[in-house]
Amino acid sequence: MKFRAKIIGKGSLDLFIQVSSTVARLVKVCVLRVCPDRMCFGSAGSGGLQEARLWCEVQQRAFQQFRMEGVSEELNEIHLELMAEHLSRAARSAVGASSLKLQLTHKRCPCLTVVVELASPLGRVRSVMHDLPVRVLPRRVWRDCLPPSLSASDVSIYLPRWRTLRSIVERMVNVGDHVLLEANLSGKMTLSIETEVVSIKSYFKNLGNPPKSAVGVPQNRDLESMVQVRVDNRKLLQFLEGQQINPPTALCNIWDNALLHLVLVQEDVSLQYFIPAL
Q: Global pTM?
Protein backbone atom coordinates (compact mmCIF):
# COMPACT_ATOMS: atom_id res chain seq x y z
CA MET A 1 0.00 0.00 0.00
CA LYS A 2 1.20 3.47 -0.87
CA PHE A 3 -0.29 6.91 -0.47
CA ARG A 4 1.09 10.37 -1.06
CA ALA A 5 -0.72 13.66 -1.60
CA LYS A 6 0.27 17.33 -1.66
CA ILE A 7 -1.71 20.53 -1.25
CA ILE A 8 -0.37 23.86 -2.52
CA GLY A 9 -1.98 27.29 -2.35
CA LYS A 10 -3.93 29.16 0.27
CA GLY A 11 -7.39 28.20 -1.00
CA SER A 12 -6.68 24.47 -1.05
CA LEU A 13 -4.86 24.58 2.29
CA ASP A 14 -7.68 26.49 3.96
CA LEU A 15 -10.21 23.97 2.64
CA PHE A 16 -8.28 21.01 4.04
CA ILE A 17 -7.88 22.77 7.40
CA GLN A 18 -11.64 23.42 7.49
CA VAL A 19 -12.49 19.83 6.59
CA SER A 20 -10.13 18.29 9.17
CA SER A 21 -11.37 20.70 11.84
CA THR A 22 -15.02 19.85 11.07
CA VAL A 23 -14.32 16.11 11.24
CA ALA A 24 -12.55 16.50 14.60
CA ARG A 25 -15.49 18.42 16.04
CA LEU A 26 -17.95 15.70 15.03
CA VAL A 27 -16.05 12.48 15.80
CA LYS A 28 -13.24 11.47 18.13
CA VAL A 29 -11.92 8.56 16.09
CA CYS A 30 -12.36 8.56 12.31
CA VAL A 31 -11.72 6.20 9.43
CA LEU A 32 -9.75 7.65 6.52
CA ARG A 33 -10.65 5.88 3.27
CA VAL A 34 -8.31 6.60 0.38
CA CYS A 35 -9.54 5.82 -3.15
CA PRO A 36 -7.99 6.68 -6.54
CA ASP A 37 -10.40 9.60 -7.08
CA ARG A 38 -11.12 10.85 -3.54
CA MET A 39 -10.37 10.80 0.16
CA CYS A 40 -13.18 10.05 2.62
CA PHE A 41 -13.62 10.52 6.35
CA GLY A 42 -16.14 8.39 8.22
CA SER A 43 -17.19 7.50 11.73
CA ALA A 44 -15.32 4.59 13.28
CA GLY A 45 -17.15 1.54 14.57
CA SER A 46 -19.69 -0.82 13.12
CA GLY A 47 -22.15 0.44 10.54
CA GLY A 48 -25.75 1.21 11.36
CA LEU A 49 -27.66 4.16 12.67
CA GLN A 50 -27.92 3.60 16.40
CA GLU A 51 -25.92 6.80 16.86
CA ALA A 52 -24.99 9.87 14.82
CA ARG A 53 -22.58 9.11 11.97
CA LEU A 54 -20.37 11.20 9.70
CA TRP A 55 -19.34 10.81 6.07
CA CYS A 56 -17.18 13.41 4.29
CA GLU A 57 -15.63 13.21 0.82
CA VAL A 58 -12.80 15.33 -0.59
CA GLN A 59 -12.30 14.96 -4.34
CA GLN A 60 -8.87 14.26 -5.79
CA ARG A 61 -8.90 17.57 -7.68
CA ALA A 62 -8.63 19.41 -4.35
CA PHE A 63 -5.01 18.15 -4.21
CA GLN A 64 -2.22 19.25 -6.51
CA GLN A 65 -0.61 15.79 -6.22
CA PHE A 66 -2.43 12.57 -5.37
CA ARG A 67 -1.00 9.07 -5.77
CA MET A 68 -2.10 5.86 -4.12
CA GLU A 69 -1.86 2.08 -4.45
CA GLY A 70 -4.40 0.03 -2.56
CA VAL A 71 -4.15 -3.46 -1.14
CA SER A 72 -4.62 -4.97 -4.63
CA GLU A 73 -5.67 -4.10 -8.17
CA GLU A 74 -9.18 -5.41 -7.47
CA LEU A 75 -9.46 -3.64 -4.10
CA ASN A 76 -7.64 -0.40 -4.84
CA GLU A 77 -8.42 1.27 -1.49
CA ILE A 78 -6.73 1.99 1.83
CA HIS A 79 -8.61 2.21 5.17
CA LEU A 80 -6.90 3.84 8.14
CA GLU A 81 -8.23 4.53 11.62
CA LEU A 82 -6.83 7.54 13.48
CA MET A 83 -7.62 10.20 16.07
CA ALA A 84 -9.42 13.00 14.26
CA GLU A 85 -8.00 15.68 16.58
CA HIS A 86 -4.43 14.61 15.74
CA LEU A 87 -5.04 15.26 12.03
CA SER A 88 -6.83 18.54 12.75
CA ARG A 89 -3.97 19.78 14.92
CA ALA A 90 -1.42 18.90 12.24
CA ALA A 91 -3.50 20.61 9.55
CA ARG A 92 -3.91 23.76 11.64
CA SER A 93 -0.12 24.11 11.72
CA ALA A 94 -0.36 24.75 7.96
CA VAL A 95 -2.00 28.16 8.41
CA GLY A 96 0.13 30.50 6.30
CA ALA A 97 2.19 27.57 4.93
CA SER A 98 3.27 27.11 1.32
CA SER A 99 2.34 23.42 1.15
CA LEU A 100 1.15 20.38 3.09
CA LYS A 101 2.09 16.80 2.30
CA LEU A 102 0.36 13.59 3.39
CA GLN A 103 2.14 10.24 3.21
CA LEU A 104 1.54 6.76 4.54
CA THR A 105 4.74 5.70 6.32
CA HIS A 106 5.94 3.08 8.80
CA LYS A 107 7.93 4.38 11.80
CA ARG A 108 7.84 1.63 14.41
CA CYS A 109 4.15 1.55 13.60
CA PRO A 110 2.01 2.63 10.62
CA CYS A 111 1.75 6.43 10.47
CA LEU A 112 0.11 9.12 8.41
CA THR A 113 2.96 11.60 8.12
CA VAL A 114 1.98 15.24 7.63
CA VAL A 115 4.75 17.56 6.45
CA VAL A 116 4.08 21.30 6.50
CA GLU A 117 6.43 23.65 4.65
CA LEU A 118 6.65 27.18 6.02
CA ALA A 119 8.50 30.01 4.29
CA SER A 120 10.53 32.28 6.56
CA PRO A 121 10.92 36.06 6.02
CA LEU A 122 14.46 35.36 4.76
CA GLY A 123 13.13 33.11 2.01
CA ARG A 124 14.19 29.86 3.62
CA VAL A 125 11.78 26.92 3.86
CA ARG A 126 11.21 25.32 7.27
CA SER A 127 9.52 21.93 7.45
CA VAL A 128 7.38 20.74 10.34
CA MET A 129 6.64 17.00 10.47
CA HIS A 130 3.80 15.27 12.30
CA ASP A 131 3.75 11.46 12.53
CA LEU A 132 0.17 10.43 13.32
CA PRO A 133 -0.23 6.80 14.44
CA VAL A 134 -2.86 4.94 12.43
CA ARG A 135 -4.38 1.47 12.42
CA VAL A 136 -4.58 -0.20 9.02
CA LEU A 137 -8.05 -1.76 8.88
CA PRO A 138 -8.46 -5.29 7.46
CA ARG A 139 -10.77 -5.87 4.54
CA ARG A 140 -13.33 -7.72 6.64
CA VAL A 141 -14.40 -4.45 8.35
CA TRP A 142 -14.38 -2.16 5.30
CA ARG A 143 -18.13 -2.53 4.79
CA ASP A 144 -18.76 -1.20 8.30
CA CYS A 145 -16.96 2.04 7.39
CA LEU A 146 -19.23 2.96 4.49
CA PRO A 147 -22.13 5.41 4.79
CA PRO A 148 -25.56 3.85 5.37
CA SER A 149 -27.47 2.67 2.30
CA LEU A 150 -30.81 4.50 2.34
CA SER A 151 -34.00 4.58 0.32
CA ALA A 152 -35.44 7.87 -0.97
CA SER A 153 -36.32 10.27 1.84
CA ASP A 154 -39.86 11.41 2.61
CA VAL A 155 -38.85 15.08 2.41
CA SER A 156 -35.80 16.96 1.18
CA ILE A 157 -35.51 20.69 1.87
CA TYR A 158 -32.85 23.41 1.82
CA LEU A 159 -31.77 24.68 5.23
CA PRO A 160 -32.28 28.31 6.33
CA ARG A 161 -29.40 30.68 7.03
CA TRP A 162 -26.80 28.83 9.06
CA ARG A 163 -26.30 31.49 11.71
CA THR A 164 -30.04 31.82 12.28
CA LEU A 165 -30.56 28.07 12.58
CA ARG A 166 -27.64 27.66 14.96
CA SER A 167 -28.84 30.51 17.16
CA ILE A 168 -32.31 28.94 17.48
CA VAL A 169 -30.97 25.49 18.33
CA GLU A 170 -28.55 26.97 20.88
CA ARG A 171 -31.49 28.51 22.74
CA MET A 172 -33.50 25.30 22.55
CA VAL A 173 -30.66 23.29 24.10
CA ASN A 174 -31.15 25.30 27.29
CA VAL A 175 -34.82 24.32 27.36
CA GLY A 176 -34.87 20.58 26.63
CA ASP A 177 -32.98 17.59 25.25
CA HIS A 178 -35.12 16.81 22.21
CA VAL A 179 -36.05 18.95 19.23
CA LEU A 180 -38.81 18.18 16.71
CA LEU A 181 -38.00 19.08 13.11
CA GLU A 182 -40.84 19.13 10.56
CA ALA A 183 -40.74 19.93 6.85
CA ASN A 184 -42.80 19.52 3.70
CA LEU A 185 -42.44 19.64 -0.08
CA SER A 186 -43.62 23.27 -0.23
CA GLY A 187 -40.47 24.76 1.27
CA LYS A 188 -41.74 25.01 4.85
CA MET A 189 -39.89 23.87 7.95
CA THR A 190 -40.47 24.19 11.70
CA LEU A 191 -38.31 23.57 14.75
CA SER A 192 -40.06 23.04 18.07
CA ILE A 193 -39.42 21.98 21.63
CA GLU A 194 -41.96 21.44 24.36
CA THR A 195 -41.67 20.80 28.10
CA GLU A 196 -44.08 20.94 31.01
CA VAL A 197 -43.13 24.57 31.54
CA VAL A 198 -42.52 26.09 28.10
CA SER A 199 -43.19 25.53 24.40
CA ILE A 200 -41.08 27.08 21.61
CA LYS A 201 -41.65 26.83 17.86
CA SER A 202 -39.79 28.52 14.99
CA TYR A 203 -41.25 28.74 11.49
CA PHE A 204 -39.43 28.95 8.14
CA LYS A 205 -41.01 29.27 4.71
CA ASN A 206 -39.91 29.62 1.08
CA LEU A 207 -36.78 27.55 1.76
CA GLY A 208 -37.18 25.60 -1.45
CA ASN A 209 -36.90 21.89 -2.18
CA PRO A 210 -34.22 20.27 -4.36
CA PRO A 211 -35.52 19.46 -7.87
CA LYS A 212 -35.16 15.70 -7.35
CA SER A 213 -37.12 15.78 -4.08
CA ALA A 214 -40.44 15.38 -5.91
CA VAL A 215 -39.29 12.38 -7.98
CA GLY A 216 -41.33 9.32 -7.09
CA VAL A 217 -43.81 11.25 -4.95
CA PRO A 218 -47.39 9.93 -5.42
CA GLN A 219 -49.58 12.36 -7.35
CA ASN A 220 -52.20 12.36 -4.60
CA ARG A 221 -49.74 13.36 -1.89
CA ASP A 222 -50.49 16.67 -0.18
CA LEU A 223 -47.38 18.82 -0.63
CA GLU A 224 -48.32 20.78 2.49
CA SER A 225 -48.31 17.70 4.73
CA MET A 226 -45.44 17.77 7.22
CA VAL A 227 -42.94 14.98 7.77
CA GLN A 228 -41.33 14.96 11.21
CA VAL A 229 -38.36 13.59 13.10
CA ARG A 230 -37.44 14.09 16.76
CA VAL A 231 -33.69 14.09 17.45
CA ASP A 232 -31.18 14.73 20.21
CA ASN A 233 -30.87 18.51 20.43
CA ARG A 234 -27.19 18.38 21.39
CA LYS A 235 -26.31 16.20 18.41
CA LEU A 236 -27.95 18.73 16.09
CA LEU A 237 -26.15 21.61 17.79
CA GLN A 238 -22.84 19.74 17.63
CA PHE A 239 -23.22 19.56 13.86
CA LEU A 240 -24.24 23.21 13.49
CA GLU A 241 -21.37 24.44 15.65
CA GLY A 242 -18.83 22.00 14.27
CA GLN A 243 -18.92 22.59 10.55
CA GLN A 244 -16.25 25.00 9.29
CA ILE A 245 -16.71 24.51 5.54
CA ASN A 246 -19.37 27.21 4.90
CA PRO A 247 -20.77 25.54 1.75
CA PRO A 248 -23.04 27.21 -0.83
CA THR A 249 -25.55 24.33 -0.55
CA ALA A 250 -26.96 22.94 2.71
CA LEU A 251 -30.02 20.74 2.92
CA CYS A 252 -31.64 18.07 5.04
CA ASN A 253 -33.49 14.89 4.23
CA ILE A 254 -36.08 13.43 6.58
CA TRP A 255 -37.39 9.90 6.93
CA ASP A 256 -40.61 10.20 8.95
CA ASN A 257 -39.93 9.45 12.63
CA ALA A 258 -36.75 7.60 11.64
CA LEU A 259 -33.78 9.70 10.52
CA LEU A 260 -32.45 13.23 9.96
CA HIS A 261 -29.83 13.43 7.20
CA LEU A 262 -27.89 16.71 6.92
CA VAL A 263 -25.92 17.39 3.73
CA LEU A 264 -23.36 20.09 2.92
CA VAL A 265 -22.06 20.42 -0.64
CA GLN A 266 -19.16 22.50 -1.92
CA GLU A 267 -17.28 22.26 -5.21
CA ASP A 268 -14.71 19.69 -4.05
CA VAL A 269 -16.19 18.60 -0.72
CA SER A 270 -19.41 16.98 0.44
CA LEU A 271 -20.30 16.23 4.06
CA GLN A 272 -23.15 14.12 5.40
CA TYR A 273 -24.29 13.72 8.99
CA PHE A 274 -26.87 11.13 10.02
CA ILE A 275 -28.85 11.63 13.26
CA PRO A 276 -31.24 8.80 14.20
CA ALA A 277 -34.70 9.61 15.55
CA LEU A 278 -35.45 9.20 19.25
A: 0.92
- Does residue 273 lie in a domain region? no
On whether the CB atoms of residues 94 and 12 are closer than 8 A, the answer is no
Domain span at residue 185 reads 155-257
3-state secondary structure the chain: CEEEEEEECHHHHHHHHHHHHHHHHHCCEEEEEEECCEEEEEECCCCCCCCCEEEEEEEHHHCCEEEEECCCCCCCCEEEEEEHHHHHHHHHCCCCCCEEEEEEEECCCEEEEEEEEEECCCCCEEEEEEEEECEECCHHHHHHHCCCCCCCCCEEEECCCHHHHHHHHHHHHCCCCEEEEEECCCCCEEEEEECCCCEEEEEECCCCCCHHHHCCCCCCCCCCCCEEEEEEHHHHHHHHHHCCCCCCEEEEEEECCCEEEEEEECCCEEEEEEEECC
Same domain (yes/no): 126, 163: no
- Structural domain total, the chain: 2
Q: What integer pLDDT is reported at residue 51 of this predicted model?
A: 87
Convert the pLDDT of each residue in 96-150 to its tens digit: 899 999 999 998 899 999 999 987 777 788 899 999 999 999 999 998 888 888 8
What is the rounded distance in angstroms from the CA atom of residue 264 to the CA atom of residue 239? 11
